[in-house]
Amino acid sequence: MARPTPMSGFPEFLPAGRMVESRVLGVISSTFELHGFAPIETRAVEPLEQLSRKGEIDKEIYVVRRLHADEGEGDELGLHFDLTVPFARYVLEHAGHLVFPFRRYQIQKVWRGERPQEGRYREFTQADIDIVGQDRLASHHDVEIPLVALDVFGRLHRDLGLPQVRIRVNNRKLSEGFYRGLGIEDPAAVLQRVDKYDKIGPGAVAELLTTQVGLSRGQAEACVALAGISAADGSFVDQVQALGVQHELLDEGLAELEVLVRLAAAQEPGRVVADLRIARGLDYYTGTVYETLLEGFEKLGSVASGGRYDSLASDGKVTFPGVGYSFGVTRILAPLIGKGVLTASRSVPSAVLVAVDDEESRERAITIARQLRARGVACEVAPRADRFGRQIRYAERRGIPFVWFGAGRDDSVKDIRSGEQHPADPARWLPPEPDRVPRLHSTL
């Protein structure tokens, strides 16, 4: 078989990188649970019709079919491109068994047919939280979501050395009300262009608004001026009002966003910033929207995002509004692991290699390993009864710090980094705390 060619956009970590990812996912899920979110998992596929009506994403959906399916057989299915659309279906399907407001977290793979580049992949892991109500959901949850996100990122920063973040927030009511106050009849088209502000700049956005949406030069300039407003406190309200546009929906969005920024600043000063260029490309967002930047890695763009949706899930009688946030786990980790910014102290969980004197003593070595594992010490038995020097070199290549000799007869353990060797009892010995599990290292 010829050497396989790597597939662009489908990242695969080596064991040390996977250990980093596993530790990060552990911190994320445990923090979610501290805030009362329950885990769920949904299927990988959804009806194509459902996936393709959620905004400018239909061209990136992977279609799924059976290789030898007959023509016209079965429903057209697609791999989910995020976790929000399948979650909406999940809520409708299981509503009778859920208690509202329902708080869920979900960590799964998603697929998106994007052009692969740093920070953007075709297969990647997301970690989502959502709070969903029945018919109504209090606006204070819009403040709660970014505070949960900051708690997650704060723990990842303190415990694992990941970069700190800044969350940029806006409110679609504010933007839509502003556009309607200007006499614009298609706010969604304007939002989609404004969402490109960071990528192409204000001048290019204004050009798109005039040539593609049909706005006047004055309308386009006003929309760009709104997008340029940013503040970590309530001063953005005065800046918006100074533009002289009036509309009831604008006032509602301004009030909601001011409360969010003020309350978030009281808990996490400077971490939540009102940024009125934030739009989010998916059309199910109806109020607050969030985007998140890694400090020092801003060129990656938003690595976590979300917002309020008031009509994503409905069965025609009952509506399930919600607010949610999605962590792009692979988007965050793949560049950091690839550049060596985040590494593990060893590529295997094993802290001990139990040496084998000869094949007759392998059974005793297995017994030693079993005793160590019973007390939580990860270990493995040497694959070959070889000279001790070769077994030590094998442990070095694996990154295992300790080698156990004797296998029940004059037992001793050697730290192969320092060369120190001491008698040891497998029923009591433990490795030093820093060596019990692989440690994460950050160059930040």
From TrEMBL:
Return the EC number: 6.1.1.21
- Cellular compartments per GO CC: cytoplasm
Report whether Nucleotide-binding shows up as a keyword of the record.
yes
Q: Does the keyword Ribosomal protein apply?
A: no
Entry keyword set: Aminoacyl-tRNA synthetase, ATP-binding, Cytoplasm, Ligase, Nucleotide-binding, Protein biosynthesis
Catalytic activity, per the record?
tRNA(His) + L-histidine + ATP = L-histidyl-tRNA(His) + AMP + diphosphate + H(+)
Span-the-membrane segments of this chain are none
> What residues does the Aminoacyl-transfer RNA synthetases class-II family profile domain cover?
15-349
InterPro entries annotated for this entry? aa-tRNA-synth_II, aa-tRNA-synth_II/BPL/LPL, Anticodon-bd, Anticodon-bd_dom_sf, His-tRNA-ligase, HisRS-like_core, HisRS/HisZ
Q: Which GO terms describe its molecular function?
A: ATP binding; histidine-tRNA ligase activity
Under the heading PROSITE patterns, the entry gives: AA_TRNA_LIGASE_II
Q: Name one Pfam family in it.
A: tRNA-synt_His
GO-annotated biological processes: histidyl-tRNA aminoacylation
Entries under NCBIfam families matching the protein? hisS
What the record says about family reads: Belongs to the class-II aminoacyl-tRNA synthetase family.
Q: What is this protein called?
A: Histidine--tRNA ligase
Q: Which organism is it from?
A: Arachnia propionica
Q: What is the lineage of its organism?
A: Bacteria, Bacillati, Actinomycetota, Actinomycetes, Propionibacteriales
